[in-house]
Amino acid sequence: MSDTKPHTPASSHEDLWVFGYGSLMWRPGFEFIEQVPARLIGEHRALCVYSFDHRGTPEKPGLVLGLDRGGACRGIAFRVAATQRDEVINYLRGREQTTHVYREVMRSVWLENEARERVSALAYIVDRGHVQYAGRLSLHEQLRYVRQGHGRSGNNRDYVLETVRSIEAQGFRDAPLHQLALLLRDEAPLHR
């Protein structure tokens, strides 16, 4: 019998690291001890997931971020106390796994602190075989989906702009997202 549960730290006595690269950077939604800028190697941040729930619907999908293979991604690593570990994992599963478009995995991330230490962190990687995997879309296609997207967590435009603000607050840029944000900033907010 195979174990279908994701690999998470073996001991509930260990603190848990969580890697945020999208909305988790600006709205983690869970208690943490510290947050540290971090880099994950092997996957990159991409608007590659059709959103049928948080930022869109099946009829009018939005577009959200996923970690897709190749490259690297700068984000934030959150350290969660061991006593909060199970609660935070359950919260994240409820938030990130509503349609199971992400695979919950443990990945090495490099903390951008004085020690430059490597830690194992919980991360959500896009499942390329899932129906919501959008792949690589042109800027025009991304703009169309983001403009139309509105789901239970709000409109898609705000999601992209908040993520870009968070990236800038960390002192770096994400060229594809910044290019999209420039087009979106010139538009009035969409309310439904």
Q: CATH class, anyone?
A: Alpha Beta
Order of helices and strands: EHEEHEEHEEHH
Structural class: alpha+beta
- Quote the CATH topology: Hypothetical upf0131 protein ytfp
Oligomer: single chain
Please explain how this structure is put together.
The protein has 192 residues and is an alpha+beta fold. It has one domain (16-184): Hypothetical upf0131 protein ytfp (Roll), CATH 3.10.490.10. It contains five helices and seven strands, in the order E-H-E-E-H-E-E-H-E-E-H-H. A hairpin with a 2-residue loop joins strand 6 and strand 7. Mean pLDDT is 91; it is low at 1-10. A five-stranded mixed beta barrel has the order 1-3-2-4-5. A two-stranded antiparallel ribbon has the order 6-7. The protein is globular. The relative contact order is 0.22. The termini are far apart. Helix 3 (139-148) crosses helix 5 and helix 4 (156-169) packs across helix 5.
Structural descriptors:
alpha+beta, 192 residues, two-stranded antiparallel sheet, Hypothetical upf0131 protein ytfp, five-stranded mixed barrel
Short structural description:
By secondary structure, this protein is of the alpha+beta class. Helices cover 27% and strands 34% of the residues. It has five helices and seven strands.
